Amino acid sequence: MIDQLNLASQPFRNRTLPWTVAVVVACASVVALILVVGAGRQARAQADRVEHDVQDLRGREQALQQKAEEVRNTLTPDQRFVLDAAHEIVDRKNFSWSRLLADLESTLSGNVRVARISVRDTHQVNGQTQADLELTVVGKTPTDIVHMIGEMARTGIFDAELLTQQPRAAKGEPGTEATLRVRYTPRTGASAKPEESASSARLVNPQHDTTETQ
Residue 87 in contact with residue 112, Cβ under 8 Å? Predict the structure, then answer.
């Protein structure tokens, strides 16, 4: 028995399938292009709105600053002094001693204690209270104090500078006493827990040392 033969010059060719695939690919590409263009326009529109809002807020801020400066210029020197004093009182009221003591305690080793704390200045930076402190600390050795300064810098909330350092032998006491100038920036949203505040009281020796605010 002889099998049937296809004697066409181009046998077994389906002309419909390639065209169908090409049309589907082309349609998918057009749809993807439309989606990309639409998403790009939407992103640009959103960016324009955000930029407009930012410019509006900046304009309002500048207007408020200008009004505040105009009001300040109308004040007498005595009134300006009272205003500055009021701002300082507010800044000091916002300063948290319990948080400071808790943060200090976390940086102290067993060989160093704080003998005296003085707040030299407080001010607001981007809505956050910063304080310039002067600390008197006592360590068993000068190395202990240097290590404490390094630990304070590592926390990111203390920036300490050594002002003076001397042995306590002249007072008939062991150890080394040092005075530090410290810039303290509390972490945003941080708060001292009651037990931290209580334990932080051990930072200062109640028999010999004082904690004061100037």
Answer: no
CATH fold of 96-213, please? Alpha-Beta Plaits (3.30.70)
Cβ partners under 8 Å of residue 81, min gap 6:
none
Is the overall model pTM greater than 0.70, yes or no?
A: no
pLDDT digits (tens, 9 = 90+) for 27-62: 888 888 888 888 888 888 888 888 888 888 888 888
Q: Collapsing DSSP states into helix, strand and coil, what is residue 209? A: coil
| Domain ranges (residues) in the chain | 16-74, 96-213
The CA-CA-CA angle for residues 127, 133, 135, to 5°, reads 150
Could you give the C-alpha distances from 180 to 4, 69, 71, 139, 211, in angstroms and in order? Answer: 105, 36, 39, 13, 15
DSSP H or E stretch at residue 8: none
What are the tokens at 27? 């349609």
